[in-house]
Specification:
The structure is a homodimer. By secondary structure, chain A is α+β, with helices and mostly antiparallel strands. Chain A has helices at about 40-50, 60-75, 100-105, 110-120, 145-150, 200-205, 215-220; strands spanning about 20, 50-55, 80, 90-95, 125-135, 140-145, 160-165, 180, 185-190, 225-230, 235-240, 245, 255-265, 290. Chain A has one domain (about 30-290): Sandwich (Jelly Rolls). Chain A contains 7 helices and 14 strands.
Chain lengths: ~300, ~300
Amino acid sequence: MPASAPDPYPSRRVAAPQLLPRQDPVLHGGPDAPGPLARDELLAFERDGWLLRRGVFSAAEAAALADEVERLAGIADETRISEPDAPAVRSLFAIHRGDGPLARAQRDRRVAGLARQILADEVAFHQSRVNRKPAFDGREFSWHSDFETWHVEDGLPAMRVLSAMVMLTPNTAANGPLLVIPGSHIVFVSCVGEAPPDHHRTSLRRQQYGVPDRASLTALASGRGVEAALGGPGDVVIFDGNLLHASGGNLSPLPRCNLFAVYNAVGNAPGRPYGGGSPRPAHVAEPAPQPAAGSP
Amino acid sequence: MPASAPDPYPSRRVAAPQLLPRQDPVLHGGPDAPGPLARDELLAFERDGWLLRRGVFSAAEAAALADEVERLAGIADETRISEPDAPAVRSLFAIHRGDGPLARAQRDRRVAGLARQILADEVAFHQSRVNRKPAFDGREFSWHSDFETWHVEDGLPAMRVLSAMVMLTPNTAANGPLLVIPGSHIVFVSCVGEAPPDHHRTSLRRQQYGVPDRASLTALASGRGVEAALGGPGDVVIFDGNLLHASGGNLSPLPRCNLFAVYNAVGNAPGRPYGGGSPRPAHVAEPAPQPAAGSP
């Protein structure tokens, strides 16, 4: 972005919340772009900002991935984030690095191919993680747009980025499923309040900045409400980077585990953070494209 | 209960959690008791400890009841309980008193008749309330058996008591629906830890005593899992007084509102609290039967 062009998606350094129109397409290649998704699926994604595909991975594949998560959760390092009120591991980051089973699943064209089709570009990993919501202790994630953070804190210029989530356990009404406000991706909600340095150290446990105001959330949910992504192991949800989403706590006696990859169009490489701060560490946000070349 | 008979359902004053067998029937009149429920519904209730009936009240009836709740929520007195972290009204108690629309709905035989059929007796109100889970601020209810509290703190002798819940708004995966562990009603979970006097002043906001241990919850959910009571205005859920249940927070921008009545068999009138403390106030637990005579 030239220094003279105004930022179309200002946030944090604003005096009051604003609802701003999206400047970028949702389907960057249109509804007839080639790939695994049918035209009606692409149109549903354009309208709703999200899509659930059943049985993308087999039960056996999903079980093997879940086993790998439990193995990794036992290895402590800075890429593991614990629950705010308990020692249990909440998230594991930088899953796409290396060539383990989880990274291979994220390069698999059954997932990465959906991103290439919608973004109409080669795709690179901006971030990846496992959200492992432990039994009883797994706490909620507040409402937010991922793109808001990726723009302000990581320097992604445009809404040409999306997430794919592979369910590794059942996602039920009892264990804190992904909740979305369908259609909210067509509006950018400017959030009030500047985050302190090293915000990521607390925000990954419990987000306080980059959280939309309640009036904006209520307005966007008016009419279309809130939907829950309920499904089982091997199901895949894709959602636009700007879709407002949240998830509740896990009150059930069983953990809930999902694998996330964030696919960014290679033409949308990160620049300087729009919020002016220092970039987040590489394990949370890749500073340069990490191509997600698909399996054949 | 004669002073010499041991309490079959000891709790709080125990050294360790115990899973004790239920001593009372679930269907006190058996599966052929006369009433609105069919034999297969009664057998499902016996097996699961809960049942959902769709469309018991019409949409117009449910809307009128919801309006009455909002009117009452604006009147501050000791029967109104606020959220633990916000001023919003969380619960309203003693709804069955008087002759307003909510009390009439709780005496209606479409609801009270279900209790009479299962408990095989005339029924009296032990308690009633509205749980009005406000948008954004509505917090979770921990896992518990109502009967455990009603026995220890209110002196109900036997498991011959049940709850009916009338949904006044949609109950979705996003707004903190009732969660149950099906089949858990056949076991009494002794809970460790004695509550201080006036426990009800805090327990109605956030329960800390009479909460089953995690190992017991995990064991009881093993195999049958956790189910959510999802439905819409006018749907009715009945559940056994000893069924383990909970509910999540309401993350949605819309309130979630349910009307509860606790129907006790008149032959199961409260005595001295089994925990030895003073009885709770009458607006939380009626000290003497308040007959719930049905409409014709």
